[in-house]
Amino acid sequence: MTIGRFAPSPTGILHLGNLRTALASWLSARAAGGRWLVRMEDVDGPRCRWDLGEAQLRDLAALGLESDGPVVWQSGRLADYQAALVALHAAGRLYPCACTRKDLQLLASAPHAEDGLRPYPGRCRGRAWERFEQALRLRLPEGAMAWEDRLLGPQTDDPATLTGDPLLFRRDGCFAYHLAVVVDDGAQGITEVVRGADLRPVTATQIRLQEALGLPRPDYAHLGLVVAPDGSRLGKRAGGLGLEALAARGVSSAEVLGWLGWSLGCLERPEACRSEELIQAFDWAGAPKGEVRVPEAWA
Ligand code: GLU
Predict the structure, then answer these.
(1) Which of 49, 115, 178, 195 for mutating ligand 1's site (highest number of atoms within 8 Å of CB)?
(2) Residue 87 to residue 89: CA distance in whole angstroms
(3) Cβ neighbours of residue 154 under 8 Å, at least 6 residues apart?
């Protein structure tokens, strides 16, 4: 059975790009007769807020997208992340990292990978284990890895040049994003991950972590980002492109949904609709691969 998910971080409003990812993940699961779950990724630092998470859930509901099971908040799942670290340590896969942000900036001599990612150069790989309460990294195996993207096709990435050994536990005592996302996709039995293309470069690293934890590999689909009418990144302008801001300018949720559905190849024209009306027409083969521009009138 297909189980999809949408996993926002509750650090702001859901803008058109996030909403498009939510809809695509929902449609993909629904078109396969599967289930769709929402997970709040609220462990990544102090910018996460419950009220923002609740507002995100209200916006999803306004589009007719509701989780088929209880919404999982990662802040309630820390024991599982800790257990995963214990297992990885027992398998000899973790090492402590003493690098500061400044050290890493100085070390970043390799050309920066796409999206400004700086691969960790492995400076602390030889450092002896002391205890769990320190920054911890996963020792990645050598070499490139092939994986398949349902939208983009075959991919071959070498995690060493994209992320390097990922940080799994942070010096400030927080579990890091890669660990939480991989442990939860495994625990929730997620079979397909649909998300924005900004996360494509970390996928090989996350697959390596799945392998280290003995978890199955879900299918992946990375959607082109939603960009400004002139093709530039939305940046701060994304804040004005949530349901509430658009409603204040006279654009209804049904119209937003119609535009999102059209942008995913489900409608001939962007016109108001309900989410169920899009299911039958959804097909990865017909979904555009590239970036999508916000309509002039909304920007
Ligand atoms: N929480 C992540 C974000 O909002 C997404 C994680 C994922 O889809 O794998 O950027």
Answers:
(1) 195
(2) 5
(3) 146, 147, 148
C-alpha distances in angstroms, 11 versus 6, 82, 220, 246?
15, 24, 24, 19
25 exposed, middle or buried (CB, 10 Å; 0-12, 13-18, 19+)? buried
Q: Which numbered atom of ligand 1 lies nearest the CA of 41?
A: 1
**For residues 247 and 59, what is the distance between their CA atoms, to the nearest angstrom?**
11
Which SS3 state, helix, strand or coil, does residue 147 take? Answer: strand
Q: What is the per-residue pLDDT for 110?
A: 43
Residues 173 and 130 sit within 8 Å (Cβ to Cβ): no
Distance 229 CA to ligand 1 centre (A): 24
Query: Which atom of ligand 1 is found nearest the CA of 185?
Result: 9
CA distance 24 to 29: 9
In angstroms, the CA 297 to CA 299 distance is 6
Residue pLDDT, tens place only, 59-71: 999 999 999 999 9
CB of 92 closer than 8 Å to CB of 131: no
Structural domains in the chain, sorted by start: 77-187 (3.40.50.620)
**Residue 50 in contact with residue 17, Cβ under 8 Å?**
no
Give per-residue pLDDT as tens, 255-292. 999 999 999 999 999 999 999 999 999 999 999 999 99
Neighbours of 292 (CB within 10 A): 19
Atom of ligand 1 nearest to the CA of 194: 8
Pocket of ligand 1 (CB under 6 A): 7-9, 41, 181, 193, 195, 199
Please check whether residue 121 is in contact with residue 107, taking contact to mean a CB–CB distance below 8 angstroms.
Answer: yes
